[in-house]
Write a structure and sequence with these properties.
- The chain is α+β, with helices and mostly antiparallel strands.
- A four-stranded mixed beta sheet has the order 1-7-6-3.
- A hairpin with a 5-residue loop joins β6 and β7.
- The longest helix has 56 residues.
- 13% of the residues are buried.
Length: 454
C-alpha cells in the first residue's frame, strides 16, 4: 500500500512539473512571437520611412525602348498622367486642376540631348514632346535619354529612361522632299497625330505618291523667326518637311513659274491652283516652299585639317597631369618684376633728393651776389604786380603807386611808400591833389646862377 501511495505521489508530481513546463514554453513562445511581431512592425515602419525619403528625392522607372527609323520623324509624348500616380494626390478633392509638372531631358552622361532631338513644353500643365529626325550617323548607337519629371508643388521628382534605338532602312529617306511653311500653327499643335495626319492627307491628295512620310518638323523660331505679338491669335509658324517616292506634282511646281516668282519678289501671294485643298485648315506660305531632289544633290565633302599634336582626338579623353609634379620656383620672377624696378626707383629717388636739398644756393647767397639797384627794381616790380592784382578785385582804389617814383634819381635814396601796405584806400578820392599827398617828397632841383625875380 505504501508503494501504491508513493507511485501516485510521483505521478502527481510529474504531472505538475509537465503542466508548469508547458506553460513556461507557451509563455516563452508567445513572448518570442510578440518580439518578432514588434521587430517586423518596426522594420516595416523604418522601410516605409526610408521609402518615403527616397520618394521625395526621386523615383525611377524601368527603361522604355523605342525603335525609330533614320530619316523619319520621331515623336514621343511625355504624358503628365503617366507621372501623376508617382506624386501625392492634389489636396483639393473635386478640383479639376492638378499639380504643375515640368520635364527635363538629357542624354545619359551629358547635360543636353543629341543634336537631332528637340524638346518642347509650352506650359507647366501641358504634356512635353520629344521630336526630331534621326540621321544615319546614329544608326546602331542606342541613345539613353534621361527624363526627369518635377512636381512644382511638392518638389518631388520621378525619373525613367527612354532608350532610342535608331534603325536604318534602305527605303528611307525618300528621294523627293518638299518643305512647307505653315503660318497658322505652332510646333506642338503640328506634332499632334490628328493634325499631322490631316496635313499628310492633304499633301497626298496633291502629290499622289505611293509612299509619303513626314521627315522633320521645325519651329520658325529655330529658323530665325520672330516671336509673334499676343494679339489676334497669332502663331509662331512651323516648317514641315515631307518625303515621297514620286517626282513633284505640277501643282507643287507652279511656285517655280516666273509669274509666281515675280509675285513673291513683290511680297504678293502666288497663284497656286491646289491651295484650296490646304486653306481650310492650313495657311501655307507658298513663297517659302522648298523642293529638293536628293538624287540630284551633289555631295560636298569637307576635309578636316590636321588638328596637330596639341589637339585631343575627337573621341579622346582628357588625362590631367599627375599630382607628383614639382612645384615651380617663382623667386626669379619676383626679382625681375618687383625687386629690380623698386631698386631703380629708389636710386632715382636719392639722386633727386640730393639734387633738390643738398645742391641749393639759397636766397641769401643770391641776394649777396645781386646789385642793390637790381634788387630795388625787382622789389618794385613785385609790389606793383601785387597792387595790380588787388586793384582787379576792387576798382574803387587810389592811383597805383607805380606811377610815383620809388627812389630819388639824384641821390639814389629809397623813397618810402605814400601809404603803408595796411592803409585803407577805399575811401580815398579818385583825383588826388598836392594837399592830399602829405608824405610826398619834393625832388630837389638845381637853381641857375644869378638873381631871382619874383
Amino acid at each position: 500500500m505504501m508503494c501504491t501511495m508513493s507511485a501516485a505521489a510521483v505521478s502527481v508530481w510529474l504531472g505538475t512539473v509537465y503542466i508548469v513546463h508547458a506553460c513556461d514554453v507557451k509563455h516563452t513562445a508567445c513572448h518570442e512571437r510578440n518580439a518578432r511581431m514588434e521587430r517586423s512592425t518596426g522594420l516595416r515602419q523604418r522601410t516605409a520611412q526610408d521609402r518615403d525619403v527616397v520618394t521625395i528625392l526621386s523615383r525611377s522607372h524601368a527603361d522604355r525602348n523605342v525603335y525609330p527609323s533614320a530619316g523619319v520623324l520621331f515623336v514621343h509624348v511625355l504624358e503628365r498622367e503617366h507621372f501623376k500616380g508617382e506624386f501625392p494626390p492634389y489636396p483639393k478633392s473635386g478640383d479639376a486642376s492638378s499639380d504643375p509638372i515640368t520635364f527635363n531631358t538629357n542624354l545619359m552622361g551629358y547635360p543636353d540631348r543629341p543634336g537631332w532631338l528637340r524638346y518642347i513644353q509650352r506650359t507647366q500643365r501641358s504634356d512635353g514632346v520629344l521630336y526630331g529626325s534621326p540621321t544615319a550617323r546614329y544608326v546602331g548607337k542606342p541613345s539613353v535619354i534621361e527624363i526627369t519629371a518635377y512636381n512644382r508643388r511638392t518638389f518631388e521628382t520621378a525619373r525613367h529612361n527612354l532608350v532610342i534605338n535608331i534603325m536604318g532602312t534602305e527605303e528611307f529617306p525618300l528621294p523627293y522632299q518638299a518643305e512647307f511653311y505653315i503660318k497658322n500653327m505652332n510646333v506642338e499643335e503640328m506634332l499632334a497625330s490628328e493634325v499631322l495626319g490631316d496635313f499628310l492627307g492633304a499633301v497626298k491628295n496633291v502629290w499622289q505618291p505611293e509612299r509619303l512620310n513626314a521627315i522633320n518638323i521645325t519651329s520658325a523660331l529655330d529658323r530665325g523667326g520672330r516671336v509673334p505679338l499676343p494679339i489676334n491669335n497669332l502663331k509662331e509658324g512651323v516648317y514641315v518637311m515631307v518625303g515621297a517616292d514620286v517626282p513633284f506634282s505640277s501643282c507643287l511646281r507652279e511656285v517655280e513659274s516666273p509669274h509666281n516668282q515675280l509675285r513673291c519678289s513683290q511680297e504678293m501671294e502666288p497663284a497656286i491652283s491646289c491651295d484650296k485643298k490646304f486653306r481650310a485648315q492650313f495657311d501655307i506660305d507658298w513663297c517659302k516652299i522648298s523642293l529638293v531632289d536628293i538624287n540630284k544633290v551633289v555631295p560636298v565633302y569637307i576635309t578636316r585639317p590636321d588638328p596637330g599634336t596639341g589637339i585631343l582626338p575627337e573621341f579622346g579623353e582628357y588625362n590631367p597631369p599627375s599630382e607628383t609634379l614639382m612645384g615651380r620656383n617663382y623667386f626669379s620672377d619676383f626679382l625681375i618684376t618687383l625687386a629690380v624696378p623698386s631698386a631703380v626707383a629708389l636710386v632715382l629717388f636719392f639722386i633727386l633728393g640730393y639734387t633738390m636739398c643738398c645742391r641749393r644756393e639759397g636766397v641769401e647767397k643770391r641776394n649777396m651776389q645781386t646789385p642793390d639797384i637790381q634788387l630795388v627794381h625787382h622789389g618794385s616790380i613785385q609790389k606793383s604786380s601785387k597792387e595790380l592784382r588787388s586793384m582787379s578785385k576792387n576798382r574803387e582804389i587810389s592811383w597805383p603807386l607805380s606811377t610815383l617814383p620809388v627812389f630819388n634819381p639824384v641821390s639814389g635814396e629809397v623813397v618810402p611808400p605814400i601809404h603803408p601796405d595796411n592803409y585803407e584806400t577805399t575811401s580815398m578820392p579818385l583825383m588826388q591833389t598836392q594837399t592830399n599827398l602829405q608824405n610826398q617828397i619834393t625832388i630837389p632841383q638845381q637853381r641857375p646862377s644869378g638873381k631871382w625875380y619874383s
